Structure formats: C-alpha cells, structure tokens
Amino acid sequence: WELRGELPAEHPFRGNEGALRRFLIARKLNVAKARQMLDTHVAWREENLPVKLTPEIRAELRKGKFYLLPGAKDVNGHPVVVVRSGLFDPKERDLETCIKAFLYLLETSLEDLGESGKFSIMYDREGFSVSKNFDFDLLKAWAGIASDNYPERLASVALYPSGAVLAGLWKLVSVFFDVRTRSKIKMVQNQEELAALIPKEALPPRYGGARPHE
Which 8-state DSSP code applies to residue 32? Predict the structure, then answer.
C-alpha cells in the first residue's frame, strides 16, 4: 500500500489496513490528502480519547437521548444507534459534555466491529419541536467529528418520521456533512419503511417492532 509506505514505522496506524483503507476512500484515493487526514486524526485521538466516564457524562447518557440498541442489527447486519431528537434541549445541555457522551457511546459501539465495521443511526423525530429541540451547534459539531475522524464508519441514517419540516431542516444542516455521508441519509415516512431498514424484531414497540425492551 502506498499510504502505508508513507508512514513511519512507529505510526499507530501503519499496520492497520482497515483504517488506511477508510481514510484513503474518504480522500478519493489521494495518498497525500489521506496522510494529512490520518495525521490530524491521530492528534485528535491523543487529545480526546479515551473518553473518561465522569459523573457528568454518565448523567448525560442516562437521559436516553442517544443509545445503542443492545444486540440489534439493521438488515445489513450493522449495529444501530438510536438518537431521540425530541429529548434534546440546547438550553439545558453542556455542549462539551454532550459531545463527549456521544463519543463514548460511539467508541463503545465500534469496539467489537474491527477497523472495517460500520454502524447505522436511527434518528427518531417523535416529539421533536424546532423551537425547543433543534440543536444546531451540536449537530454541526457531531458532523465535523464524524467526517474528520470516523470516515466510512457510517452505514446509513434513517430519519423517522420524515416530512416537509424535516426536509427543510436537512437542507439547512446537510452542508456540514461530506457528499458520501449525505448519500447515506434516508427519509423514512412510516413504520413499514423503517422495518425495511431495521427488522421489526430489532425495534421496540414505539417503532412498530416486536422487541420488548430498548
């Protein structure tokens, strides 16, 4: 691999073919740009990971705003992270704590997947209000972190339930996501369409599924 040959022997990702492949794809196989992205990512990891599970982060995770569906997989076998947008309130959250809590969840979700593994997100809009729950700063921060540090990790995002309001919001925030990520966003209008992406046996009853517990 040309990218691997560009890295010094002590580079933490030199022998990680899965990671090298992901960063190359993210930079359209441009070795120089992939190397720059990878080096920036290494510096970011040293500064931000691992996330220490502080009382503040535990409290944020207990709010149930985002969580991993235990043992559940989408139709392509990817683990599913649920994001309940109706529980967000930018006036009552600490941005840094919320970012770190999601990073903790994300890193935990990826532990058993290997460097080529991917995850899916179900973005639940039930109970969502633009005036109360729309957290522009948090979405912008998450988008930047995902694009810069987790390339080719996202399998798909199901936006449920979709409609005219969501289409308008997506147009506003989509500019913060790279082109490949935008192509993975799916507007899901009803439970039948949702079940085509995530089997009913993996979904709790609130989404028309048969899973007894979330």
Answer: H
Mean pLDDT across the stretch 118-143? 93
Long-range CB contact pairs, 131-135, < 8 A, 24+: 132/89, 133/85, 133/86, 133/87, 133/88, 133/89, 134/88, 134/90, 134/169, 135/88, 135/89, 135/90, 135/93
How many Å apart are CA 58 and CA 164, to the nearest integer?
35
H helix or E strand, kind and range, residue 31: helix 31-48
Token pair 């309001």 is at which residue? 165
> How many CB atoms lie under 10 A from the CB of residue 68?
15
| Three-state secondary structure call for residue 159 | strand
Return the closest-CA partner of residue 98 out of 46, 128, 54: 54
pTM above 0.85, yes or no: yes
Can you tell me the distance from the alpha carbon of 98 to that of 35, in angstroms, rounded to the nearest whole number?
30
User: Distances from the Cα of 77 to the Cαs of 7, 68, 84, 176, 180, in angstroms?
Assistant: 33, 14, 22, 27, 20
